[in-house]
Write a structure and sequence with these properties.
By secondary structure, the protein is mainly β. It is built from 2 helices and 35 strands.
Length: 429
């Protein structure tokens, strides 16, 4: 194995993209998949399950889009029913999201309510796709925009495919019995779903069809370890092993003969990957964004192969100053990133949480309203990023006024709606 840029003596191979869960206070949100990590033991393999779940209503129609009711009330957004015109308009920049009409109790614990699936246009027009009982705890796992279907996760463990036009659900299935997985799920061109991740220490990498049948091609690599993986363009991959003798990042770039081991930038004690980075000018492939520490100080970098020097995104002093001025102090860490246009967005947490653009080494947190700032970045369509904060959802670009998609009270206080604080949102690239 080549030693390109994090440690020595690694015996490993490579796979594709996975994101771990991130916890904000008592609110657990599954980022890339809408599923949650566990520690118990269970058998692995797709297993059909039974469910009474059904979006409402299920009337028939001669049109492509089946008629459906619109949920109304003081605690839910105003929306229209999805129709043929809106359905045919879905393209880059549209958003699929799940809104929870429940509230927070006096202990700031979530009391789930009806969960409503919305399609939202780039202009902020909302269309209800379906609603689910609170007991189902529906969330998004992935969205196949071209095929008009979403992979939902029910109760964190059961998967079902939701046809956005007909409201039909496939028979639910599981990969780890009653236990969830931690994975990145990618819709594939043939209509199947590619899983990269793990369940309770077991491997669930594979390709599954809409009813959970394992249809994994022979050349689809299944890695045997718990790890963080990232697709870094044109078939290149990066893998992170935190349980090796030393934390290690392995990369395999297109055209390379063997994987390379990344080494930490000079002066850094250790680094962990936080997302796929940009593709800077002159670099052959997209980079890997990493957070590197020295003692309690953390900085962010972009790295790639081909002997190119790492690019420092922000210094440790910049992160510390941002945490002090914006997040109320504390020891900060960076646990996730995304790319919006040509800028990296870092999610920084200490006593609070913030998603901030990196602009020439400066951190700039987009204000979504006069009082609410961005906490999470959910991806981008070109220069437009999808952000959430305190249960609300917006799109915005760097230096551009935000477009509200879902708005709630914004303080997560007792008796106030949950909104999108516990669920995942996806923007069509």
């Amino acid at each position: 194995m080549k030693n390109a840029l994090f440690g020595n003596g690694v015996k490993a191979t490579f796979t594709f993209l996975a994101f771990a869960l991130v916890v904000f206070g008592a609110v657990a949100a599954a980022y890339a998949t809408g599923v949650f990590g566990v520690t118990a033991e269970a058998s692995v393999g797709a297993t059909p399950t039974t469910s009474s779940s059904s979006p409402n209503p299920t009337a028939t129609s001669d049109s492509i889009v089946r008629p459906r009711a619109v949920t109304t009330g003081t605690d839910v957004p105003v929306a229209q029913a999805l129709d043929d015109t809106a359905y045919a308009s879905v393209t880059s920049g549209w958003v699929l999201t799940v809104f929870d009409s429940g509230t927070f109790d006096a202990l700031h614990q979530a009391v789930p309510g009806t969960r409503i699936v919305y399609l939202v246009s780039p202009a902020g027009d909302r269309y209800e796709v379906g609603s689910f009982d609170a007991a189902e705890q529906v969330d998004l796992a992935a969205w196949n925009v071209a095929d008009g279907k979403a992979l939902l996760v029910l109760g964190g463990v059961r998967y079902t495919v939701f046809d956005l036009a007909t409201t039909k659900l496939s028979p639910p299935w599981t990969l780890c019995g009653d236990h969830p997985v931690t994975a990145r799920i990618t819709p594939r061109d043939d209509g199947t779903w590619g899983f990269r991740g793990y369940c309770i220490g077991a491997q669930i990498d594979g390709v599954y069809d809409d009813i959970g049948t394992d249809v994994t091609p022979a050349d689809y690599y299944r890695a045997p370890f718990q790890r963080w993986d990232a697709d870094i363009e044109q078939g290149g991959v990066a893998i992170y092993w935190s349980e090796s003798p030393h934390p290690t990042i392995i990369v395999s770039f297109p055209g390379s003969d063997e994987p390379s081991e990344l080494v930490a930038p000079p002066g850094m004690d250790s680094c962990v990957p936080i997302g796929v980075g940009r593709r800077p000018s002159g670099w052959p492939f997209s980079s890997i964004a990493v957070a590197c520490t020295t003692g309690e100080q953390v900085s962010a970098w972009e790295e790639t192969d081909a002997g190119v020097e790492p690019i420092q995104l922000v210094t440790a002093s910049t992160v510390a100053a941002f945490a002090s001025s914006t997040l109320g102090g504390g020891v900060p860490f960076i646990d996730r990133s995304c790319v919006v246009g040509n800028r990296e967005v870092l999610e920084i947490q200490s006593l609070g949480r913030a998603a901030a653009f990196v602009d020439n080494g400066v951190l700039s947190q987009p204000m979504l309203t006069a009082t609410t700032a961005a906490e999470h970045c959910w991806g981008a369509s070109g220069d437009t990023g999808l952000f959430s904060g305190h249960g609300s959802l917006w799109t915005t670009a760097f230096g551009v006024s935000p477009t509200p998609l879902i708005e709630v009270s914004g303080s997560l206080q007792p008796g106030e709606p949950i909104g999108v604080a516990l669920t995942r949102s996806i923007i069509a690239p």
